[in-house]
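Slide 14.
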Amino acid sequence: MPGMLKNMIEYSYRIATQNDIQAITDIYNAAVIRGGSSADITPRTYEQRKAWVESHHDPYAVFVTETVDDDGERRIIGFSALSVFYDRAGYDGVTDLAYYIDPQWQGRGVGTYTLTKLLEECRKRNMRKACGIIFADNAGSIALMKRFGFTQFGLMPTAATDSTGTMRDMSYWYLDL
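Slide 15: predicted structure.
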């Protein structure tokens, strides 16, 4: 259907810079306040998110997903990260991955695009396993894990509270790369 191509939204993906920290902070805090996807119970400050971004050293990194808005300006609509899974040398090559999408952009394929690019980065950086730790009732993220072939390897009941005060089960997922 040729007309559909004009309405398709294009996304781009790149490594985060210092200039992206405010957008990363805003997107993350929206998730914290909403509940259901973070065990942080209060919003994070710009300085806290800056320190988090700066803590990612090669091969780990933080990335942003962008689109071009109606005014032709680039807009960050999500971010993702490859983080240390466990800080012992024997776990090198195993990464904890995370992704957060601006609430206004959820349900538009941004999560699928972002996870595709994040897994490409895993492989480029010679990771051997990717792990995701997700609230067990986060249907969107669980569906993405399954879609990309992740295997659930654990469930920890009543493990974490979110900002709404809801106690949540944690599910643990991995993918061999």
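Speaker note: The longest strand covers residues 74-84.
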